[in-house]
Give the backbone structure.
Amino acid sequence: MTLAAWWFFALPRVSLKEIALRKLVFKSVLTYLLCIAAACFGLAHAKDNNAFWKDEAIALSAMPLQGQQTYQLILSGGPFPYEKDGTVFGNRERLLPSQKRGFYLEYTVKTPGASNRGARRIVCGGPRTKPEACFYTADHYASFRKIVP
């Protein structure tokens, strides 16, 4: 990196064409080094973090009663108590397997005593009443556990 910086900045009196070429090479080298650093420190892995939920499962019977009720509502097609239920979940956290936008839908799991929707959700992927997989989060999308019926 130091050598690349010296090569770019230290050699005096060069043409504008040479300066443009040096800028391009310098940016390319810098980008390459940053990519290597990201891979070494695991930053690139955050995009495809499928291992996060594979081993983390929860039996439907082990879920809170409100979660079990929400799951049954999902399979029966509703009606749902909240306006946001059944809307697209964008998976911006990238904790669930990558899919096209619109694949995942989110549903609220009622939280006793909460004056709002609370933090608990079920996110399902696939057809509305026959999802391929559903995931439970008790911490508003910070973590997910695959629901095992």
User: Anything to note?
Assistant: The chain has two domains: 2-45, 50-148.
